[in-house]
Request: fold
Amino acid sequence: MHRSHAAFLDLRDILHILRRQRWLVTLTCLVILTLAGAYLLRTTALFTATALVQIDPQETNLLDPSAGHSGTLGAEDVRIETEVEILKSPRLALQTIKTADLSDTAAFGPRVGLLDQMRLALGVTLPTPSATALVNETIANFSEALTVQRRGQTYLVSVQITSEDPDLAAHLANTHARIYIGDQLTSRRRSVAASGEVLRAELGKSAERLAESNAALRGYVLENIDRLSAEVGSAELRQLSIQLTDGQAQLLRVEDRLQLADQGLEQGDWQDLAAQVGDQSLAALAQQRTALATRLIGAELTPQDSFDLTAEVRALEAELRAQGRAAVTGLRRDYQQVQRAQDRTLGEVQRALTSADLSPQTLTDIYALNQNALTSQRQFDRLNTRLRDVEALAVMQVAGSRLVSEALPPSDPSFPNTGLVLGVALVFALGMGIGLALLKEFYYGGVTSASQLGNVLPLKTAAAVPKTAMQPGWRTLADKVVAEPMTQFAEAFRALRASVDRGLGTRGQASGAVVLVTSANPAEGKSTTALALARTYALAGQRTLLIDADLRSPNIQAFIGAEPNVGLLEYLQSNGALRQKQAGAGRDDNDAPVEQFYLRDPRSPLAIILGSRRADVPTDAPLQSTAFKALLDNARGAFDVVIVDSAPLAPLVDTQYIAPLVDVAVLCVRFGQATQVELRSAYTSLRETLPEDAAIIGILNGVEGRSQGYSYGSYFD
Reply:
């Protein structure tokens, strides 16, 4: 059963992995940090300046000041968000661009894109962009540099401009904020002016309605005063009727005089004007002016006299016009006094009529006319008061926002953030390096623990052989099994022997058991494992034979210090014809004694069949021969255990012909070497060729770092 790596991977394992893959992690960090440094060096620094604008969320209806703002939180939020969008609007952006003259700058003006640059490089003529397109591109560049956002739930809005020039960024942020405030003030003044125009128009209409209603009431009274006096029979009303008639006549006379006086003032007819206003001094001035004008025209004068007379005439005309305006103003006051007296008389008549005993129809007519006049008067007064308020607001109008904090030129760039970039790059580099190290360890790299091997391949991992150093006098690490039998190294092979015995089960009871030792790739400790395992069996008192069947690269003879001229390859190639001559008999050149490749281990009671020289021909055919099968059958009868050191599975097919003849297989894996893909491929190949009930046992060679043996130091030398 496969388990996840988390089932066996702990912190200590991770540290060992990182130590083994430290060069990969270091290289990854150096590459990523170098790229980050190159990015920082090549990236243009940008500076962001921030101006703070405070927005008043309250808004007054100028046409109806009594209708205040609701003041709810939702309405205020909507108002502030609306102002934020106005600050972002292209209209304000265009005003800022024009004010700061940004159209011709490299930072905000129109740019030639990369595609257009390539076209120009190829000699392609680009179409001339329209003025609208250039303006829109400038607005887009400015909007990209502009950031407007509300600060939390406050009434503050930040206006940020990002530019390569810190002074320009601060200038543009302040300029844009001021343009927004000025535009808001202008909009309010326009609103006030529009409201005033509406009120003035309505006030004029109301004045006309008031005049019409008053005129209708006066006309009714004047037309019916005699009838009303007779109907009431009141001496007071008759006297008021006489006063009203005389006042009306006087009002008409004064009105005629005022009209003629205005005409005389406008036309400069000072004699007529003096006659209308009855001002003798004005008449005298008019005569004096006429005399001077006659003298100026008729007499022969020197230039100096002419100039002096002209100046006197102009002075008299100015004095005449001033006295004339004053006289007309006095006449207009007389008219207003007569009109007010007439209105008072008319009011007394109306009050007298109201309390008089009149007919119902007359009372109804007078009441209706009077109410109409009163209603018109109230409307006129209300509109007039509103207009005065609006005119006062127009004078005292202020913007609903203010610049509370001007932008200052920033000293540090906002982009790129060197510390942040390097920090992120370092974290990313470490993560990438560790990830690549783990990826190499668990997917593409070699196996690093016995538990991992058990998860990579569905087999029993018998032991993890610790990495050890060669000692003087040793030919192979397998010598340590004999020289230092109490070490963890020797104990690992005894554990392998125990696992092999369990894997054999009942297969090796009738005759000797055959154990295959192989690996996925060369140099994974396969021959060392075969020799060490065979020695543990031999030292345990079992008759043991080790056959070096790695015909392409036999190593056992070097491990024991033997140099045979012939070996297993020659024996199999002769199909078993190599034989030992009778004692004293001669030998021909083609025959050699079997004892030359069958000998005893100098360090243990182990029998060994050597492979001799490195093969220079394909070796799969000899391993399929009847001679090899007969050799294994004879070995089963003569020995308790037969260990076969075979070729690695990945490069050669030799082992696939030996596997069907064995009882159990040992798959050797060197620590951190063979990739997991190679191990799975080797296992599949081995599993398909072994007998169905033959077990596969794994062993991990050359384990680095801390191992279980260090926890049981008192048990090992």
Notes: The chain is about 60% helix and 10% strand. The chain has a mean pLDDT of 81. Residues 40 and 418 are 7 Å apart (CA to CA). The first helix runs from residue 11 to 20.
